[in-house]
Amino acid sequence: MDASHLEELAALENHYWWHVAKRQIVVQLLARFSPPPAELIEGGIGAGGNLLICKEMGYRVSGFDLMPEAVLHAQKLGLHEVAVHDIREPWPAQPGAKDIVILLDVLEHVEDPAHVLSHAARVMSQEGVLILTVPAVRFLWGPWDAALGHQRRYSAKLLRTHAKEAGLSVRWMSHWNSFSLPPALVMRSLAKLLGRQSAAKFPRVPSWLNALLRGCACLERHLSRLAPVPLGLSLVGVLTR
């Protein structure tokens, strides 16, 4: 993540529908699989908003990020157990010390995701859980992904493979953001066909559409409790040792 994208994330993450929807999914999964209080670590904290919500929920939180700017921003939010650290190196926590690991749209950025997951597995307690999100639908790979520094988009099979290589298994998995898949297929297919470049920015939407998309995400989230969503622009999963 470059500095400009971090600034955009900090400005949008508390109200933009995509960020809000992703955070609400994570909150739902935390309450379902490992309610507070518990020890939680986030790899790749970004602007710190998700870690702050976890702290407010009652978790004992820590986290790290490769960008000093991200760590400084998180500290300004009152998150003090954060540090600059490369996620590809052994994590700054004792083996088995964490009940929860969070990796939100991180794995797609690294060359060896199974290696990163093995670091996460090392710090997880025996009954710990890892909650992660990754971009899905490998056919959609294009300029947007390249601009964001993605190495890949995921299928459910690929995510299971990387988890298994790290000694982890998938306890629960679902797609999300199914409702915006059709327009994304059209827009990104056209971008590839026309050879257009893409900036690493979230498209701005009017307030009424932002509210509508948040409502769609809320409905999808409730439905996912009944059965996993079969298609969507992202995957969300819960991994265990």
Description:
It is a single chain. The chain is an alpha/beta fold. It has one domain: Vaccinia Virus protein VP39 (Rossmann fold, 3-Layer(aba) Sandwich), CATH 3.40.50. Helix content is 43%, strand content 20%. The protein is built from nine helices and seven strands, in the order ααβαβαββαβααβααβ. It has helices spanning 3-12, 17-33, 49-57, 68-76, 113-123, 143-148, 156-165, 181-194, 207-224; strands at 39-43, 60-65, 82-84, 98-104, 124-135, 169-176, 234-240. It has a seven-stranded mixed beta sheet, sandwiched between helices. Strand 4, helix 5 and strand 5 (124-135) form a beta-alpha-beta unit. It is globular and about 50 Å long.
Question: In brief, what are we looking at here?
Answer:
This protein is of the alpha/beta class. 43% of the residues lie in helices and 20% in strands. The longest helix has 18 residues, at 207-224.
